[in-house]
């Protein structure tokens, strides 16, 4: 059932719990993945599709289906001046050194985090969205305005003991969402560049049985590819400090530890929006995008957009 804006009315938690096993089973079918590129099923995805259409009706922009939608990921160079990125990286190092909460027990060998990054690092980590090339590319992806749902900031460390996002996985977020990564340090083949598979190859691996679920993630997929006669063609972007990457995080990807030094990045989850991102942020405040990075809102409509679901 929908209200006058096209969003769905809340479903009672008891009913949600009762139907969850069926929803997970149905959403994990290959034909559903090929349609939505996630395992969430038709209800969540249809809500996001209706919302995206609602946003385009409020303020339509030219939509480009040949950019990140077809390529899976693109790099926008020199969004931030190298000197500014270097200074932010140095500031990150100081914050990490003086904050015991930057270390999480289950990822201590992999990374350090900076909590509330916009408040601590300054507004330049948000001003990147005023860059006309980056802003235009995002608007062309959504065909509308957009908003920042959440942001995160972390330093990747050299290690050979990998787990979590350092294994091949899909973030399992709803359709019509976009991930953005701002590099504060160079990230090439030996400096922690994220590895990707195309959406087409992701679908082929999914049909063959590799879903990137938490319990069955692998560091390498070459043997799986050989066993199932699949193409094995991971790729990465050689990013420089100040470059920004846009990518579809439902395509298979994995973080890669740098072999030397460290890699500093900020990540952002973007959703379509009826009004521009900065006007939405002025209404909601910084805390709305800093307090709970990760996951996605069950309903994308701004008045209901609280991060209540975590990515699988």
Mean pLDDT: 86
Can you tell me the residue ranges where pLDDT is under 50 for at least 5 consecutive residues?
306-312
Q: H/E order of the elements?
A: HHHHEHEHHHEEEHHEEEHH
CATH class: Mainly Beta
CATH superfamily: q2cbj1_9rhob like domain
Which range best describes the helical content: under 10%, 10-25%, 25-40%, 40-55%, 55-70% or over 70%? 25-40%
Q: How many strand segments?
A: 8
State the shape. globular
Q: What is CATH's topology name?
A: Jelly Rolls
- Biggest sheet: strand arrangement: 1-6-4-8-3-2
Write the layout of secondary structure elements.
Layout lengths: L12 H15 L2 H7 L5 H17 L9 H4 L1 E4 L5 H16 L13 E3 L3 H5 L2 H4 L4 H11 L2 E12 L21 E6 L11 E2 L2 H10 L13 H6 L16 E4 L5 E2 L8 E11 L3 H8 L2 H4 L22
Antiparallel strand pairs: 1-6, 2-3, 3-8, 4-6, 4-8, 5-7
Fold and architecture overview:
With 312 residues, the protein is an alpha+beta fold. The chain has one domain: Sandwich (Jelly Rolls). The strands form two sheets. A six-stranded antiparallel β-sheet has the order 1-6-4-8-3-2. Strands 5-7 form a two-stranded antiparallel sheet. It is globular and about 45 Å long. The C terminus is likely disordered.
């Amino acid at each position: 059932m929908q209200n006058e804006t096209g969003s769905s009315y809340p479903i009672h938690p008891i009913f949600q719990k009762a139907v969850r096993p069926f929803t997970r089973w149905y959403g994990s079918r290959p034909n559903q993945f090929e349609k939505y590129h996630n395992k969430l099923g038709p209800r969540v995805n249809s809500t996001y599709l209706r919302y995206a259409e609602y946003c385009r009706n409020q303020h339509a922009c030219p939509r480009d289906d040949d950019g990140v939608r077809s390529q899976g990921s693109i790099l926008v160079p020199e969004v931030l001046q190298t000197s500014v990125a270097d200074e932010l990286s140095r500031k990150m190092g100081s914050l990490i050194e003086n904050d015991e909460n930057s270390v999480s027990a289950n990822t201590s060998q992999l990374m350090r985090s900076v909590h509330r990054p916009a408040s601590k690092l300054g507004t330049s980590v948000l001003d990147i969205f005023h860059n006309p090339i980056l802003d235009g590319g995002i608007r062309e992806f959504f065909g509308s305005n957009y908003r920042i749902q959440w942001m995160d900031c972390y330093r990747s460390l050299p290690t050979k003991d990998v787990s979590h996002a350092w294994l091949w996985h899909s973030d399992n977020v709803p359709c019509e969402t976009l991930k953005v990564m701002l590099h504060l340090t160079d990230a090439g083949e030996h400096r922690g560049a994220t590895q990707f598979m195309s959406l087409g190859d992701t679908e082929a691996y999914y049909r063959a049985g590799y879903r990137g679920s938490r319990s069955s993630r692998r560091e390498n997929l070459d043997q799986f590819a050989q066993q199932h006669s699949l193409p094995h063609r991971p790729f990465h972007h050689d990013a420089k400090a100040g470059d920004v990457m846009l990518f579809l995080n439902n395509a298979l990807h994995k973080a890669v530890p740098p072999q030397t030094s460290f890699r500093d990045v900020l990540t952002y989850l973007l959703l379509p929006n009826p009004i521009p991102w900065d006007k939405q942020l002025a209404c909601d405040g910084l805390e709305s995008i800093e307090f709970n990075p990760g996951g996605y809102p069950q309903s994308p409509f701004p008045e209901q957009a609280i991060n209540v679901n975590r990515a699988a």
